[in-house]
Amino acid sequence: MAQTACKILLVEDEADIRTVVQLALRQDPGFQVTAFESGEAALSAIGEGLDYFDVGLFNVRLTGMDGPELARRIRKLRGYAHLKVIFLTASVLPPQIQQYAQQGAVGVIGKPFDPVALPGQIRKLLDELGENA
Fold first, then answer.
1. Where are the domains of the chain?
2. Which of 36, 67, 71, 122 allows an S-S link to 60, with CB 3.0 to 4.6 Å?
3. Nearest to 126 by CA among 105, 103, 99
4. In sequence order, what are the beta bridge partners of 57?
5. pTM for this entry
6. 6-128 adopts what CATH topology?
């Protein structure tokens, strides 16, 4: 019996990074990735009911609305109160990681990241939550 894919909502405003993340995550058949260049575009797509997502993978410093604000706004939408959020950021000092955790992040992946290791990093974070992605 086939397991359903973990649907990841990727929001990254830098096109090159967005492409690298998409290519990296598509190497894992357990992940299905939908990417947007902005928080506004992601919110619009969710509002139109285009798909449901299990995990949000957000750049912290997005143009316009930042990653933590995007997470707050998505979690107010019907069915998304418990969205698992992982932040991508170059700001990975312990106080910053603690702040992201207080904002509801289940994990932080530092930039620059190893594209080959990225699927495993996300899988490890989800496994720690008891999720079988």
1. 6-128
2. 67
3. 105
4. 10, 86
5. 0.92
6. Rossmann fold (3.40.50)
Q: Which two tokens stand for residue 130?
A: 């008891």
Structure tokens at 30: 């357990």
Concatenating the DSSP letter of every residue in 64-125 gives: SS-HHHHHHHHHTSTT-TT-EEEEEES--SHHHHHHHHHTTEEEEEESS--TTTHHHHHHHH
Please check whether residue 17 is in contact with residue 59, taking contact to mean a CB–CB distance below 8 angstroms. Answer: yes
Tokens representing residue 105 in the block: 């992040």
